Amino acid sequence: MKRFIKMGLAVSAIIYLSFNTVFAATPAELYDDVWKVVNKKYYDPSNNQQDWAKWRYRYDHKLKTQEDAYVAIDTMLASLNDPYTRFLQPKEFSEETQSIKGSLKGIGTQIGLRDGNLVIIAPLEDSPAERAGLLADDQILEINGESTKGINIDAAADKIRGEKGTTVKLLIQRKGVPNRVYSIVRDEIEVKSVSCKPPFDTTVIPDDIQYIRLSSFISKNAASEIETILNSSADKKGIIIDLRSNPGGLLTNAIYISDMLLRGGVIVSTVDRDRYKSTTRARYTQVTQKPVVVLINKGSASASEILSGALKDNHRATIVGEQSFGKGLVQEINKLPDESGMNITIQRYLTPSGADIHKKGITPDVVVELTKENVDAKDDVQLKKAIEVLKEMTCLVQQNG
Length: 401
Fold this sequence. Notes:
Layout: E1 2-7, E2 13-18, H1 27-41, H2 66-78, E3 86-88, H3 90-100, E4 103-106, E5 109-114, E6 117-123, H4 128-132, E7 139-143, E8 146-147, H5 153-160, E9 167-173, E10 180-185, E11 187-190, E12 194-195, E13 209-214, H6 222-231, E14 238-242, H7 251-261, E15 266-271, E16 277-281, E17 292-296, H8 303-313, E18 317-321, E19 329-335, E20 341-350, E21 366-367, H9 372-376, H10 381-400
Parallel strand pairs: 2-19, 13-14, 14-17, 17-18, 18-21
Antiparallel strand pairs: 1-2, 3-20, 4-11, 5-6, 7-8, 7-9, 9-10, 12-13, 15-16, 15-20, 19-20
Helix pairs in contact: 1-2, 6-7, 7-8
């Protein structure tokens, strides 16, 4: 059995399991497989205060086709009232695994549910969504003229995806401005994770500061790319890591990058249904001791919150920006016998201080809001503040040095 850990797709933290062999399963067997996984692994032993046993035989002798099983599974999982525990049909499962390999089709935006509303967590860097002007926290009211009220994440993603060159229309509600329809041409998107260029070309990074923009933890190469930059930054006095609008990705990337910056200490802890707590600690592989500032905003989620939480709680970095998204649950995705899959919430995670940040987020040490007026003027006040804070930190290091 192969295993790796992934966080951030649809604002999820995912442990991915796959089987080496594929075998036929009847609709009833497929349904029962899903029931047993939830019964064994779901992070809440009360199954959201419901009688899970009633679902096992609910559809006995009624599931004749694969589609019957899919509908029954969707209905069963919906009863948990957990948007992150969901069934993926073979096409959806294939698309999710492709995104891990660094290739996406659509408009390039991470979506999630907040208080029952469909929201944009973050547009991917240099994607059609970003170029069209979509922003973190935008609420999607309609997709191609159809209301999103009551829609789930999978159904919404399926409507937004499409062939390269086709157009999707999103009715967007944004705080402080009138509702607007965005017409966005779909494309094949290469997931770019690491850049040394700030989002606005009007922002000047001082020569003695190393700026690193990490837009996603999805790419398996993200940690090694960060390490290469850190190793080539011997002449720099400090480092800015920009995690704004980073919806997450591989948990291993968050751990490896934390390890590069920490000298000992806890990185993250997870707690399962049996209240078993597992703690991951830094392994003394610190690459640099230079001062660090981390930028976050309301689009920083999941793995971004693990990294920023680890650095904040260990007093290794100063956090600048806005409150992060608040995604503190871990999902496991199981590949099922017919090439479909299911995401299931199996753990919650805690920052090194023991804080549960789910639906709360990480609070910056220095709060700076980036307004619409700032964006329109390409005035990155958050990055400017990060530079100011880092200069103060480097001055203190020199004085104490």
